[in-house]
Specification:
Family: Belongs to the inositol monophosphatase superfamily.
Keywords: Acetylation, Hydrolase, Lithium, Magnesium, Metal-binding, Phosphoprotein
Shape: globular
Distance between the termini: 42 Å
Radius of gyration: 19 Å
Cofactor: Mg(2+)
Oligomer: single chain
Largest sheet: 6 strands, mixed
GO molecular function: 3'(2'),5'-bisphosphate nucleotidase activity; inositol-1,4-bisphosphate 1-phosphatase activity; metal ion binding
Enzyme class: hydrolase
CATH superfamily of the largest domain: Fructose-1,6-Bisphosphatase, subunit A, domain 1
CATH topology of the largest domain: Fructose-1,6-Bisphosphatase, Chain A, domain 1
Strand order of the largest sheet: 3-4-5-6-7-8
Low-confidence stretches: 136-149
Protein backbone atom coordinates (compact mmCIF):
# COMPACT_ATOMS: atom_id res chain seq x y z
CA UNK A 1 0.00 0.00 0.00
CA UNK A 2 1.38 3.44 -0.90
CA UNK A 3 2.09 5.73 2.04
CA UNK A 4 -0.60 8.31 1.33
CA UNK A 5 -3.03 7.31 -1.45
CA UNK A 6 -4.98 10.09 -3.10
CA UNK A 7 -8.54 10.67 -1.93
CA UNK A 8 -10.14 9.28 -5.09
CA UNK A 9 -8.18 6.02 -4.78
CA UNK A 10 -9.18 5.68 -1.12
CA UNK A 11 -12.81 6.35 -1.99
CA UNK A 12 -12.80 3.76 -4.80
CA UNK A 13 -11.02 1.26 -2.52
CA UNK A 14 -13.75 1.74 0.08
CA UNK A 15 -16.54 1.62 -2.51
CA UNK A 16 -15.15 -1.68 -3.79
CA UNK A 17 -15.45 -3.36 -0.38
CA UNK A 18 -18.77 -1.69 0.38
CA UNK A 19 -20.18 -2.95 -2.94
CA UNK A 20 -19.07 -6.47 -2.03
CA UNK A 21 -20.87 -6.21 1.29
CA UNK A 22 -23.98 -4.87 -0.43
CA UNK A 23 -23.84 -7.81 -2.84
CA UNK A 24 -23.71 -10.20 0.11
CA UNK A 25 -26.77 -8.46 1.61
CA UNK A 26 -28.62 -8.86 -1.70
CA UNK A 27 -27.85 -12.60 -1.74
CA UNK A 28 -28.82 -13.04 1.91
CA UNK A 29 -32.22 -11.41 1.47
CA UNK A 30 -32.96 -13.57 -1.57
CA UNK A 31 -32.02 -16.73 0.32
CA UNK A 32 -34.30 -15.71 3.18
CA UNK A 33 -37.28 -15.56 0.83
CA UNK A 34 -38.54 -12.47 2.71
CA UNK A 35 -38.17 -9.65 0.18
CA UNK A 36 -40.73 -7.27 1.76
CA UNK A 37 -41.59 -5.70 -1.61
CA UNK A 38 -42.97 -2.16 -1.89
CA UNK A 39 -44.33 -0.61 -5.10
CA UNK A 40 -42.89 2.90 -5.35
CA UNK A 41 -44.65 4.24 -8.46
CA UNK A 42 -46.09 1.05 -9.94
CA UNK A 43 -45.50 -2.61 -10.66
CA UNK A 44 -42.35 -1.86 -12.67
CA UNK A 45 -40.81 0.33 -9.95
CA UNK A 46 -40.23 -1.84 -6.92
CA UNK A 47 -38.25 -1.63 -3.72
CA UNK A 48 -37.24 -4.63 -1.62
CA UNK A 49 -35.65 -5.16 1.77
CA UNK A 50 -32.40 -5.80 -0.12
CA UNK A 51 -32.60 -2.34 -1.76
CA UNK A 52 -33.11 -0.71 1.63
CA UNK A 53 -30.43 -2.60 3.56
CA UNK A 54 -27.86 -2.37 0.78
CA UNK A 55 -28.33 1.39 0.47
CA UNK A 56 -28.09 1.86 4.23
CA UNK A 57 -24.86 -0.16 4.21
CA UNK A 58 -23.31 1.74 1.30
CA UNK A 59 -24.26 5.24 2.35
CA UNK A 60 -23.49 4.83 6.06
CA UNK A 61 -20.15 3.11 5.40
CA UNK A 62 -18.94 5.73 2.94
CA UNK A 63 -20.27 8.65 5.01
CA UNK A 64 -18.43 7.44 8.08
CA UNK A 65 -15.06 7.43 6.27
CA UNK A 66 -15.71 10.37 3.92
CA UNK A 67 -18.10 12.71 5.78
CA UNK A 68 -17.82 15.65 3.34
CA UNK A 69 -18.61 13.68 0.19
CA UNK A 70 -22.15 14.17 -1.16
CA UNK A 71 -23.89 10.80 -1.46
CA UNK A 72 -27.14 10.41 -3.41
CA UNK A 73 -28.95 7.08 -3.22
CA UNK A 74 -31.88 5.83 -5.26
CA UNK A 75 -34.11 4.94 -2.34
CA UNK A 76 -35.84 7.57 -0.24
CA UNK A 77 -35.30 6.15 3.22
CA UNK A 78 -36.14 7.59 6.65
CA UNK A 79 -33.21 8.81 8.73
CA UNK A 80 -32.48 5.97 11.11
CA UNK A 81 -29.47 4.71 13.00
CA UNK A 82 -27.82 2.09 10.81
CA UNK A 83 -27.01 -1.20 12.48
CA UNK A 84 -23.30 -1.69 13.02
CA UNK A 85 -23.27 -5.02 11.19
CA UNK A 86 -24.18 -3.15 7.99
CA UNK A 87 -21.05 -1.00 8.18
CA UNK A 88 -18.02 -1.96 6.07
CA UNK A 89 -14.74 -0.38 7.18
CA UNK A 90 -12.18 -2.19 5.02
CA UNK A 91 -10.61 -1.03 1.76
CA UNK A 92 -9.27 -2.93 -1.25
CA UNK A 93 -5.48 -2.92 -0.98
CA UNK A 94 -5.05 -3.68 -4.68
CA UNK A 95 -6.71 -0.34 -5.48
CA UNK A 96 -4.77 1.63 -2.87
CA UNK A 97 -1.56 0.35 -4.46
CA UNK A 98 -2.44 1.82 -7.87
CA UNK A 99 -1.13 5.21 -8.97
CA UNK A 100 -3.72 7.94 -9.10
CA UNK A 101 -4.17 9.76 -12.43
CA UNK A 102 -2.53 13.18 -12.05
CA UNK A 103 -5.69 15.16 -12.83
CA UNK A 104 -7.47 13.63 -9.81
CA UNK A 105 -4.60 13.60 -7.32
CA UNK A 106 -5.60 16.76 -5.43
CA UNK A 107 -9.37 16.34 -5.19
CA UNK A 108 -11.16 17.24 -1.97
CA UNK A 109 -14.11 15.41 -0.40
CA UNK A 110 -16.52 18.32 -0.83
CA UNK A 111 -15.88 18.29 -4.60
CA UNK A 112 -17.10 14.72 -5.08
CA UNK A 113 -20.59 13.32 -5.57
CA UNK A 114 -21.35 9.61 -5.17
CA UNK A 115 -24.39 8.15 -6.95
CA UNK A 116 -25.69 4.88 -5.48
CA UNK A 117 -28.05 2.29 -6.93
CA UNK A 118 -28.07 -0.37 -4.22
CA UNK A 119 -29.86 -2.94 -6.40
CA UNK A 120 -30.06 -2.29 -10.12
CA UNK A 121 -32.46 -4.78 -11.71
CA UNK A 122 -34.94 -4.98 -8.84
CA UNK A 123 -37.72 -6.26 -11.12
CA UNK A 124 -35.59 -9.19 -12.27
CA UNK A 125 -34.56 -9.82 -8.68
CA UNK A 126 -38.17 -10.10 -7.52
CA UNK A 127 -39.16 -12.26 -10.50
CA UNK A 128 -36.27 -14.63 -9.83
CA UNK A 129 -37.22 -14.89 -6.17
CA UNK A 130 -40.83 -15.66 -7.08
CA UNK A 131 -39.71 -18.32 -9.56
CA UNK A 132 -37.37 -19.94 -7.05
CA UNK A 133 -40.06 -19.88 -4.38
CA UNK A 134 -42.53 -21.62 -6.68
CA UNK A 135 -39.93 -24.32 -7.26
CA UNK A 136 -39.39 -24.62 -3.50
CA UNK A 137 -35.68 -24.03 -3.92
CA UNK A 138 -35.31 -20.58 -2.39
CA UNK A 139 -33.33 -22.02 0.51
CA UNK A 140 -30.72 -23.95 -1.53
CA UNK A 141 -27.44 -22.55 -2.86
CA UNK A 142 -27.85 -20.62 -6.12
CA UNK A 143 -25.95 -22.92 -8.47
CA UNK A 144 -26.70 -24.51 -11.78
CA UNK A 145 -27.15 -27.94 -10.24
CA UNK A 146 -30.96 -27.86 -10.58
CA UNK A 147 -31.85 -28.50 -14.23
CA UNK A 148 -35.47 -27.34 -14.16
CA UNK A 149 -36.39 -24.64 -16.67
CA UNK A 150 -37.79 -22.41 -13.93
CA UNK A 151 -34.62 -22.66 -11.89
CA UNK A 152 -32.39 -21.74 -14.83
CA UNK A 153 -34.72 -18.89 -15.78
CA UNK A 154 -34.52 -17.54 -12.24
CA UNK A 155 -30.75 -17.72 -12.23
CA UNK A 156 -30.53 -15.98 -15.61
CA UNK A 157 -32.67 -13.18 -14.20
CA UNK A 158 -30.28 -12.82 -11.29
CA UNK A 159 -27.45 -12.17 -13.76
CA UNK A 160 -29.24 -8.87 -14.45
CA UNK A 161 -28.76 -7.68 -10.86
CA UNK A 162 -25.93 -5.31 -9.96
CA UNK A 163 -24.86 -2.93 -7.19
CA UNK A 164 -23.71 0.43 -8.59
CA UNK A 165 -21.51 3.07 -6.94
CA UNK A 166 -20.48 5.94 -9.21
CA UNK A 167 -18.19 8.85 -8.35
CA UNK A 168 -18.42 12.22 -10.08
CA UNK A 169 -16.23 15.32 -10.09
CA UNK A 170 -17.10 18.54 -11.88
CA UNK A 171 -20.27 16.91 -13.16
CA UNK A 172 -18.33 14.13 -14.89
CA UNK A 173 -18.42 10.44 -13.96
CA UNK A 174 -14.77 9.74 -13.14
CA UNK A 175 -14.85 6.43 -11.27
CA UNK A 176 -17.22 3.56 -10.70
CA UNK A 177 -17.74 0.21 -9.03
CA UNK A 178 -20.12 -2.52 -10.20
CA UNK A 179 -20.80 -5.64 -8.16
CA UNK A 180 -22.65 -8.64 -9.68
CA UNK A 181 -23.89 -10.52 -6.61
CA UNK A 182 -24.86 -13.74 -8.43
CA UNK A 183 -21.99 -14.05 -10.90
CA UNK A 184 -20.60 -17.60 -11.19
CA UNK A 185 -23.81 -19.48 -10.32
CA UNK A 186 -23.37 -21.60 -13.47
CA UNK A 187 -20.13 -23.11 -12.13
CA UNK A 188 -22.08 -25.28 -9.70
CA UNK A 189 -21.74 -26.13 -6.02
CA UNK A 190 -18.65 -24.76 -4.30
CA UNK A 191 -18.21 -21.79 -6.64
CA UNK A 192 -17.68 -18.39 -5.08
CA UNK A 193 -20.61 -16.17 -6.00
CA UNK A 194 -20.21 -12.58 -7.09
CA UNK A 195 -17.61 -10.38 -8.74
CA UNK A 196 -16.71 -6.72 -8.58
CA UNK A 197 -15.37 -4.55 -11.38
CA UNK A 198 -14.07 -1.01 -11.04
CA UNK A 199 -12.58 1.75 -13.11
CA UNK A 200 -11.08 5.23 -12.94
CA UNK A 201 -10.69 7.59 -15.90
CA UNK A 202 -7.07 7.75 -16.96
CA UNK A 203 -6.24 4.52 -15.16
CA UNK A 204 -8.45 1.88 -16.79
CA UNK A 205 -11.04 -0.65 -15.67
CA UNK A 206 -10.49 -3.94 -13.90
CA UNK A 207 -12.29 -7.10 -12.78
CA UNK A 208 -13.29 -8.32 -16.24
CA UNK A 209 -11.73 -9.15 -19.59
CA UNK A 210 -12.40 -6.48 -22.20
CA UNK A 211 -13.81 -7.88 -25.45
CA UNK A 212 -15.47 -6.36 -28.52
CA UNK A 213 -18.17 -7.50 -30.91
CA UNK A 214 -16.69 -8.06 -34.41
CA UNK A 215 -16.80 -4.83 -36.41
CA UNK A 216 -19.13 -6.31 -39.04
CA UNK A 217 -21.81 -7.11 -36.44
CA UNK A 218 -24.29 -4.77 -34.75
CA UNK A 219 -25.73 -6.29 -31.58
CA UNK A 220 -28.02 -4.02 -29.60
CA UNK A 221 -28.87 -4.52 -25.96
CA UNK A 222 -31.99 -2.78 -24.69
CA UNK A 223 -34.60 -2.85 -21.96
CA UNK A 224 -36.35 -6.05 -21.02
CA UNK A 225 -39.33 -4.58 -19.16
CA UNK A 226 -39.60 -0.85 -20.01
CA UNK A 227 -40.03 -0.90 -23.77
CA UNK A 228 -42.32 1.29 -25.88
CA UNK A 229 -42.73 2.34 -29.52
CA UNK A 230 -39.95 4.94 -29.36
CA UNK A 231 -37.51 2.44 -27.90
CA UNK A 232 -38.30 -0.17 -30.54
CA UNK A 233 -38.26 2.38 -33.40
CA UNK A 234 -34.80 3.44 -32.33
CA UNK A 235 -33.56 -0.14 -31.93
CA UNK A 236 -34.90 -1.00 -35.39
CA UNK A 237 -33.17 2.06 -36.89
CA UNK A 238 -29.82 0.66 -35.77
CA UNK A 239 -30.43 -2.25 -38.18
CA UNK A 240 -29.11 -4.74 -35.65
CA UNK A 241 -28.12 -8.28 -36.49
CA UNK A 242 -29.31 -9.25 -33.01
CA UNK A 243 -31.20 -7.65 -30.12
CA UNK A 244 -30.55 -8.66 -26.51
CA UNK A 245 -33.22 -7.67 -23.99
CA UNK A 246 -31.97 -7.68 -20.42
CA UNK A 247 -32.63 -5.80 -17.20
CA UNK A 248 -30.45 -3.26 -15.41
CA UNK A 249 -28.30 -0.45 -16.79
CA UNK A 250 -25.24 -1.90 -15.10
CA UNK A 251 -25.83 -5.25 -16.74
CA UNK A 252 -26.18 -3.64 -20.17
CA UNK A 253 -22.82 -1.91 -19.86
CA UNK A 254 -21.31 -5.24 -18.84
CA UNK A 255 -22.72 -6.63 -22.10
CA UNK A 256 -20.74 -3.95 -23.95
CA UNK A 257 -17.38 -4.32 -22.24
CA UNK A 258 -17.47 -8.12 -22.41
CA UNK A 259 -18.20 -8.20 -26.14
CA UNK A 260 -21.78 -9.47 -26.00
CA UNK A 261 -23.28 -6.27 -27.44
CA UNK A 262 -22.01 -3.34 -29.47
CA UNK A 263 -24.57 -0.72 -28.38
CA UNK A 264 -26.96 -0.09 -25.50
CA UNK A 265 -30.03 1.72 -26.82
CA UNK A 266 -32.79 3.09 -24.59
CA UNK A 267 -34.70 5.89 -26.32
CA UNK A 268 -36.96 6.80 -23.42
CA UNK A 269 -36.90 8.57 -20.06
CA UNK A 270 -36.55 6.13 -17.19
CA UNK A 271 -32.90 5.72 -16.33
CA UNK A 272 -31.64 7.88 -13.51
CA UNK A 273 -28.21 9.27 -12.67
CA UNK A 274 -27.58 6.48 -10.15
CA UNK A 275 -28.21 3.96 -12.95
CA UNK A 276 -25.61 5.41 -15.29
CA UNK A 277 -22.85 7.11 -13.25
CA UNK A 278 -20.84 4.01 -12.29
CA UNK A 279 -21.37 2.16 -15.61
CA UNK A 280 -20.46 5.29 -17.59
CA UNK A 281 -17.22 5.74 -15.67
CA UNK A 282 -16.17 2.14 -16.31
CA UNK A 283 -17.18 2.33 -19.97
CA UNK A 284 -15.31 5.61 -20.50
CA UNK A 285 -12.25 4.21 -18.70
CA UNK A 286 -11.88 1.63 -21.50
CA UNK A 287 -12.51 4.07 -24.33
CA UNK A 288 -16.30 3.75 -24.68
CA UNK A 289 -18.94 6.45 -24.56
CA UNK A 290 -22.34 7.03 -22.96
CA UNK A 291 -24.58 9.95 -23.94
CA UNK A 292 -28.22 10.84 -24.37
CA UNK A 293 -29.88 10.10 -27.72
CA UNK A 294 -28.74 13.49 -29.05
CA UNK A 295 -25.10 12.65 -28.33
CA UNK A 296 -24.89 15.01 -25.34
CA UNK A 297 -23.09 14.05 -22.15
CA UNK A 298 -25.00 13.68 -18.90
CA UNK A 299 -23.86 15.67 -15.88
CA UNK A 300 -23.65 14.32 -12.34
CA UNK A 301 -23.46 17.42 -10.16
CA UNK A 302 -25.26 17.16 -6.83
CA UNK A 303 -28.05 19.53 -7.91
CA UNK A 304 -28.96 18.03 -11.32
CA UNK A 305 -32.32 16.40 -11.90
CA UNK A 306 -32.15 12.67 -11.37
CA UNK A 307 -33.94 11.55 -14.54
CA UNK A 308 -31.97 10.94 -17.75
CA UNK A 309 -34.82 12.46 -19.75
CA UNK A 310 -33.28 12.11 -23.22
CA UNK A 311 -32.61 8.39 -23.04
CA UNK A 312 -29.30 6.51 -23.09
CA UNK A 313 -27.05 5.45 -25.92
CA UNK A 314 -23.80 3.71 -24.98
CA UNK A 315 -21.15 2.10 -27.15
CA UNK A 316 -17.64 0.75 -26.89
CA UNK A 317 -16.75 1.98 -30.38
CA UNK A 318 -18.28 3.95 -33.32
CA UNK A 319 -20.56 6.04 -31.14
CA UNK A 320 -21.19 8.70 -33.77
CA UNK A 321 -22.38 6.07 -36.24
CA UNK A 322 -25.06 4.92 -33.80
CA UNK A 323 -26.02 8.51 -32.96
CA UNK A 324 -26.49 9.23 -36.66
CA UNK A 325 -29.01 6.41 -36.90
CA UNK A 326 -31.36 7.78 -34.21
CA UNK A 327 -34.64 8.69 -36.00
CA UNK A 328 -35.78 12.30 -35.96
CA UNK A 329 -39.16 11.10 -34.71
CA UNK A 330 -37.43 9.73 -31.62
CA UNK A 331 -35.48 12.93 -31.04
CA UNK A 332 -38.69 14.96 -31.35
CA UNK A 333 -40.31 12.70 -28.76
CA UNK A 334 -37.54 13.17 -26.21
CA UNK A 335 -36.63 16.24 -24.22
CA UNK A 336 -32.95 17.15 -24.40
CA UNK A 337 -31.29 18.03 -21.11
Amino acid sequence: MSGNPALIMRLVASAYRVAEKAGAIVRKVLHSGELDIVEKTGANDLQTLADRLAQQSICASLSRRFPKVTIIGEEELPAVEVQEDLIENSQADEILQRSCPAEFSELREEELVVWVDPLDGTKEYTEASRCLHLQAVAQIPLTGSDTSLSHHTALWLLDNVTVLIGIAYGGRAIAGVINQPFYNYQLGAGATLGRTMWGVLGLGAFGFQLREVPSDRRIVTTTRSHSNKMVMDCVDAMEPHEVIRVGGAGNKIIQLVEGKASAYVFASPGCKKWDTCAPEAILHAVGGKLTDMYGNAYHYDANVKHMNSAGVLATLRNHENYISRVPQSVLHGLKSD
